[in-house]
Amino acid sequence: MLCGWSLLGPLQWIRYVHKQVRVKAGKDEELCGWLLTVDPVSASLVLMDFREEGTLMQVVMGHAVEEVQVLQEADKETADRLRSSFLPLRTCSLDPDELRRRRGIIQNWLEQNRIPVVEEADELRVAGVLTIRAPYGPEDCCSSNQIILDRIQRLIQNQPPPHAETDPEHRPILSNSTV
Amino acid sequence: MATPVSVLRLPKGPDPNSRGFDPNSPRFIALCRTSISASAASEADAEELQREQHARSVLRESFLRCLLSMNNKKVQFHMHENVKVDATFGASDIDVLNFQVSNLHTPIGVQKEALIRSQDVISFTFDL
Predict the structure, then answer these.
(1) In Å, how far is B28's CA from the nearest CA of chain A?
(2) What is the rounded average pLDDT of the residues A64-69?
(3) CB-based contact, B74 to chain A, within 8 Å
(4) ipTM computed for the complex
């Protein structure tokens, strides 16, 4: 089951990343594309093929790979395109005050739910096993324990909108409308 | 006196961190040994191990993000004997042993939900 390719290891695979490769797989399949990554668990290759009508993604299972051949290196434009293709969207750069406010809200919400949380520099540490980085959304949680990660992410997702009770400006409008 | 009969044990269930079956169980060794262990060179050298682990995490993260982007996409599986089937991609398990798909268009009809063994797949393609 394990052929040469599967046995290469991460340090060898990473040399092929961001290069154009031709992969022979199975009995007679041949695929071409820019290598985005190699899964270190299954040795599967992810190839991207940029076309006019859109990008074609091809995943070749590691167990089927017969031969991998490098065709060419990526130029700067292609390399940037490959690098940015699956990055999480990080467009927001909030100012420190806004971040502090968000951190406070999350910390409050977790404490309301009886979850131990401490502030460490600009990170929040939950029960010693999970950290929440700025900007403190569900995607910013980091933990090696999947169950805790899932619970905390869900908790953050289910957080009520902050201005519902903390923003004093909303109350008068409500009371006015009831009068 | 009757000779003792060995007890057949089932493999241990998934561990509490839900990392799949016990990797030392005979069933796992026979069927699912896909995880690739650290190379011999890195076991001896701590610095080498660190570099290898870094490369591993970079590659894996990028692969996982790719899997995430595949969710709910129309995927074509290329399987052995030149079989090509279309399906909507759902998920993969952490060892990449099975894929969960919906609306699998098989030659004899559409299967609403299905699990595909990755061993049966050569490659699969989808449009981003």
Answers:
(1) 14
(2) 91
(3) no
(4) 0.72
